[in-house]
Amino acid sequence: xxxxxxxxxxxxxxxxxxxxxxxxxxxxxxxxxxxxxxxxxxxxxxxxxxxxxxxxxxxxxxxxxxxxxxxxxxxxxxxxxxxxxxxxxxxxxxxxxxxxxxxxxxxxxxxxxxxxxxxxxxxxxxxxxxxxxxxxxxxxxxxxxxxxxxxxxxxxxxxxxxxxxxxxxxxxxxxxxxxxxxxxxxxxxxxxxxxxxxxxxxxxxxxxxxxxxxxxxxxxxxxxxxxxxxxxxxxxxxxxxxxxxxxxxxxxxxxxxxxxxxxxxxxxxxxxxxxxxxxxxxxxxxxxxxxxxxxxxxxxxxxxxxxxxxxxxxxxxxxxxxxxxxxxxxxxxxxxxxxxxxxxxxxxxxxxxxxxxxxxxxxxxxxxxxxxxxxxxxxxxxxxxxxxxxxxxxxxxxxxxxxxxxxxxxxxxxxxxxxxxxxx
Length: 424
Ligand code: DLL
Prior knowledge:
The protein is α/β, with parallel strands linked by helices. Helix content is 31%, strand content 25%.
């Protein structure tokens, strides 16, 4: 689709959406009144900036179903977040929403080179989390054979992967790493597996981690992005050129805003990613601020797709650590570690405050194939990592090397940071 045709479609869809939420969702009616904007003020997509933002707190305040735009009889599915940080947030889907969701995940999988010949092992969790069912419906839509194994039970994952000849693995990148490392423990090797593609997402991961997973599994790995508030997995995905993630902007209109001022940023600049769900019926969201940090590019991709691309997520604005005044994202640590290729990719960062000074300790597991017994080797290795981290992030980090398999593995989203500082 040409950019002009896409704009036209977005113009129409936004107008229709704004009228719909104004009439059906008291929360949006009120917010628009407060902002002094009426549906008749929205002529096209450029007018989106007149509309108020929506935040996670708004979903919490209207828990569970207060933002739904249709009666419950038209809702066919409910998903939600785990609610580890406060009340859970809930989202509802109509039949049409499920159809759209299938379609966008199918596009993501197609972009990853997957077709009806593939056997897709869905190792994202099934349940209120959107990963499992989202990937499942999308893969079925393109005619793949789906193995709905869900997350966890690593031995069984590997056994079925070998026995069924799974060609695609869909799970979080941290779980894909764990599964790769667990192969030898359970008596499997790459030659037992037919895997060729990974579709990984639900948590931030670096380009270096992609390369590591591609090497360990001998696959091509793709990045799938999404969030339950907007739909679940399937909002965007990278194509074979891995040059950013193509956003399905006929359904999810993206903007980037400054994290402080919430004003739109200049073209190509990083900021918070904001989405408007142009077609969603169950719980349409206007200018939902994801807090995910990215930037947008509208030029045509080498693959031929004309849809806007978002840069791989570097982290969330609320995940940014401020250490002795320096901004730090956990992904920067991962980047350095995987560049060095001297340890495993399993790590955890402890942040503390001693005598009013922030301290950083990085625990990282030794690589099983590069174990050493000499204390000098270990000391040299920690110093090498400390040095590399210091020059990359400008902070001193105490590196503690730990034995393989001592850092807790995650079957879903990994915990990479433990911040022990008391919040002031
Ligand atoms: O994680 C949906 C999903 C499932 C996406 C499976 C991809 C694959 P939530 O649990 O609502 O939904 O969490 C959404 O996870 O705002 C990001 O911070 C993060 N996230 C999701 N995908 C990526 C990704 C699912 N590819 C939150 N890269 C989002 C970086 C991601 N972060």
